[in-house]
Amino acid sequence: MSPRRRDSESTAAARAERRAELLAAAAEVFASRGYSATTVREVADAAGMLGGSLYYHFDSKESMVDEILSTFLTDMWAAYDRVLGSGLGSRETFRALVAESFRMIDTYRPAVVIYQNESKHLAQSPRFTYLADSQRRFREMWLAVLDRGVLDGVFRADLDTGLIYRFIRDTVWVAASWYRGDGPLSADEIAGQYIVMVLEGILST
Amino acid sequence: MSPRRRDSESTAAARAERRAELLAAAAEVFASRGYSATTVREVADAAGMLGGSLYYHFDSKESMVDEILSTFLTDMWAAYDRVLGSGLGSRETFRALVAESFRMIDTYRPAVVIYQNESKHLAQSPRFTYLADSQRRFREMWLAVLDRGVLDGVFRADLDTGLIYRFIRDTVWVAASWYRGDGPLSADEIAGQYIVMVLEGILST
Amino acid sequence: MSPRRRDSESTAAARAERRAELLAAAAEVFASRGYSATTVREVADAAGMLGGSLYYHFDSKESMVDEILSTFLTDMWAAYDRVLGSGLGSRETFRALVAESFRMIDTYRPAVVIYQNESKHLAQSPRFTYLADSQRRFREMWLAVLDRGVLDGVFRADLDTGLIYRFIRDTVWVAASWYRGDGPLSADEIAGQYIVMVLEGILST
Amino acid sequence: MSPRRRDSESTAAARAERRAELLAAAAEVFASRGYSATTVREVADAAGMLGGSLYYHFDSKESMVDEILSTFLTDMWAAYDRVLGSGLGSRETFRALVAESFRMIDTYRPAVVIYQNESKHLAQSPRFTYLADSQRRFREMWLAVLDRGVLDGVFRADLDTGLIYRFIRDTVWVAASWYRGDGPLSADEIAGQYIVMVLEGILST
DNA sequence: GATGAATGAGATTTCATTCAT
DNA sequence: CATGAATGAAATCTCATTCAT
C-alpha cells in the first residue's frame, strides 16, 4: 500500500466521518425540535460551526434529512432482509423483526423519531418517494408474516390483520420517542417485554 | 327577551360558529402539513379567505393551535372524569378509558394528530404549560388504573407498569394518524379489537 | 356598467398598473447596475418599499426580468409584424424596421439595455428559451430582408449578408446604452441619421 | 550570470506564465457568464484548481478583472499610439484604427467582451478610474480623426460627428461578442468589410 | 368582516475570502 | 502550490403580522 493510497483513503474516510458527525448533530436537533421548526443555524450551533459552513458539506437543509433518513432505512432493510432470509417460523420471525426494530431504535433513535414525525409530510415531495416505498414494503412484509402466522395457527384468526399490523407498527416505532439508551432497560429487554405484551396480552391468566 | 338581546345572542352564536369553522379548517391543515410547516396563508386558503383576514378572528397562529388543543383537552378530561367517577372495576375502567379515547379520536381527529406531533415542541413555550400538565395527569391516571389492576390480580404482575403505560398510550393515540371516520370499522369496533389485543394478546390459545 | 363591474375593473387595473410601476423601477436598476449585480433590496429601494414587499408582487428576482423582457419582446414583435405585413419594398422595409427599433429603444430603453447585456447569460436557463427563439427569428427576418434587397439590386452584393446583419443588429440596439429621451435628438431623428449612415456610408461623395 | 540569478529568472517567468494562464481561464469565464454572476469557484474549476487556491495567485476576484482589463487596455493604446504617430491621412488613419481594433478583438476577445459588458459598472469603483479615462481618451481620439476628416472633405459634413463616433465605436467593439477566431473570415477580412460598410454604406450604387 | 398591500424579522442559501496543513 | 474546511457578510426569499380601505 503506497503512502499515496493511504493518504487518499484517510482523507476520504475523514470526510465521511465528518459528514456522519454533522448528520448526527443535525438528526439530534431535528428530532428534538421538529424538522421544519429547527433552523439551519441551530443545526450549525449543535455542530459547533457557523450557519453557512454547513453548506460546504451539504446542499441544503433538505439534503440533510434526506441523508439521515435514507441511511437509516437502508440499514433497517438490510437487517430485515437478513431476518426474512433466515427461514424462521412465523412466531420466530415475528420476534426477530420486533427485536431488530428495537435495535434500530437503539442505534438510530433520532432518525427514527424524524421518520415518525416527518415522513408523512416529506413524502409529498418527489425527492422522498422512497419513504412511501419503504412504508409500502414494510406493510407488505408485516401482512405476509401475520397472514402466514394465522394460517399456521400461531396468530388468532378473529382479529383484523390490517389492524394488528398497525398496532404493531405504531407500538414498536413510537417507542423511539421516549427510549433513552441510558435508561434502566436495554433495547433487548424492552423488546422482550413488548413481545410478551403483544403476543400474550396484559391480562393475568 | 328584547330584540337587542336576541340579536347579540345570535351574532355571538354566529361568531362562535364562524370561529369553530375556521378552527376546524386550521386543525385539518395543521394536522396534515405539520404546525410549523403550515403557513397562515394555507390556513386562510383552506378557510376560503385571505391571509390577513384571519387576524380579525384570531390574535396569532399560535392562538389557533392553542384553542384547538385546549378545546380538545377540556372535552377529553371531562369524558375521562366521567369514567373515573363512575366507580367501575379495574378491567372495566380500562375498557372505558380506551373506548373513550377512540371516541375522542373520532370526534377530534385533527386535534389529536396535532397533539401527537406538536405537543412536545409546543410545551416548551409558557403558553402551553397545560400540555405538560395534561400529560402528567394522563400518566398518573393510567398508572393508578394499572397499579390497582395488578393489585386486584386483573393485570399481570411480571411486566413493568411504566412500560405498559407507554404501550397503551402510544397504541391508542397513534391510531389518530391513520383513522378515517369513513373507513369500514367504526370507532367503537376498532376500540373493541384494540382492547382485545391489548388484554389477551395476538396469539391463538 | 354596474358599480360592481367598475370596481373589479378598477382594482384589476390598479393591480396591473402597480406591477408596471414596480417593473419600471426594477428595469431601470437592472439596466444601470447589471442584473446579477443588483440586489433585490436596491430594486425595492427604487420602488420605495422594503425588500420583502416585492415578493408580494413577484415570485422572484428572476420573474421580474422575465416579465420585463417578455413584455418588451412581445411588443417589439407586434411592431415588426405590422411592418412586415404592410407590403413595403426592400428599402422601405429596411427603413421601417430600423425606425421601429429606435422607437422601441425610446419606449423600452431599460428593457433593451437588459436584453443586450444579459440575454446571452439568461438564455442558458430553460425559463428563458424564448430569448434564443426571438434572436433566431430576428436573424431570419433580417436575412430575408437583406437577401431580397440584394436580389432586387437595392443592397450591394459584394458584402457578406451575415456580416451586414450583425452590423445592423449591433449598430441599432447598442444605441440603447447611450440614448437618453431627453437629449437634443429625438428617436426618429437619430433613426434617420443611422439609416443614412448605414445606407450611404460616411464618406462624402 | 549566476545560477542563482537564472533560477529566480526562470521561476519568475514560470510564475508570470502561470498567472497568465489563470487569467486567461478567468477571462473566458467572466466573458461567458458575466463578471458578477461568475463565482470564484467557477474560475477555479476552469483553471483546474480549488477555489481557495486562486488566492495564492491573486488578491481578490476584483484584482483578476483588473489585471485582465488593464493588460488589454495597455496593449490597445500602444497599438493606437503607433497608428496615430505614423502621420497617416484621415482616411488611412480611420482604416488603420478600425483594423487595429479588430486585431485586438482577435487577440483579447474575452477581455474585450468583459470590457464591453462590465466597464460601465466597474468604472464606478475608484480602482477602475482608468476605464473612464480610457473611454474619454478613446472618444477624443475618434472625434479628432473624424473632425479632421470632415475638414479635409473626406467625411460627410451633414452628419453629427458625435453620432458617427458612437456608431463606429459600437459597431467595432460589439463584434467581439460574436467573433470566433476559428470562423471562416479572418480578423483582417472582417475589418476590411466593416470599413467598406462604414465608409460607403450598404446601398448598391 | 374581508381585502390587498406592505412590513420587518428571520430563515435559507451563496460566496468571496482566510488559513492551517 | 494546492487542498479542504471554515468564516462571515450579504443576498434571496418566506411569512406572521399590521393596517388603511
Q: Can you tell me about this structure?
A:
Chain A folds into 2 domains: 58 residues, Arc Repressor Mutant, subunit A (Orthogonal Bundle), CATH 1.10.10; 144 residues, Tetracycline Repressor, domain 2. Chain A is an all-alpha fold and 205 residues long. The N terminus of chain A is likely disordered. The interface between A and B is large, with 39 and 40 residues. Chain C binds a DNA duplex (21 and 21 nucleotides) through helix 1 and helix 3. Chains A, B, C, D: It comes from Planomonospora venezuelensis. Chains A, B, C, D: Keywords: DNA-binding, Repressor, Transcription, Transcription regulation. Chains A, B, C, D: InterPro entries: Homeodomain-like_sf (IPR009057), HTH-type_TetR-like_transc_reg (IPR050109), HTH_TetR (IPR001647), KstR2_TetR_C (IPR041490), Tet_transcr_reg_TetR-rel_C_sf (IPR036271).
Summary keywords:
disordered N terminus; 205 residues; homotetramer; DNA-binding; mainly alpha; 2 domains; Arc Repressor Mutant, subunit A; 8 helices; Tetracycline Repressor, domain 2
The low-confidence runs of chain A, each spanning 5 or more residues with pLDDT under 50, are 1-6
Instruction: Tally the structural domains of chain A.
Output: 2
* Total beta strands of chain A: 0
Count up the helices of chain A.
8
Q: Percentage of helical residues of chain A? A: over 70%
Mean pLDDT of chain A: 92
State the shape of chain A: elongated
CATH architecture of the largest domain in chain A: Orthogonal Bundle
Provide the gyration radius of chain A in Å: 20 Å
CATH class of the largest domain in chain A: Mainly Alpha
**Largest sheet composition of chain A:** none
Provide the CATH topology of the largest domain in chain A: Tetracycline Repressor, domain 2
Which assembly state applies to the chains in this document? Answer: homotetramer
Helix and strand sequence of chain A: HHHHHHHH
Span between termini of chain A: 66 Å
Question: What structural category arises from helix and sheet content of chain A?
Answer: mainly alpha
- Beta-strand content bin of chain A: under 5%
Considering residues with a beta carbon less than 8 A from a beta carbon on another chain, report the largest interface and each chain's count: A-B, 39 and 40 residues
Q: Which superfamily, in CATH terms, is the homologous superfamily of the largest domain in chain A?
A: Tetracycline Repressor, domain 2
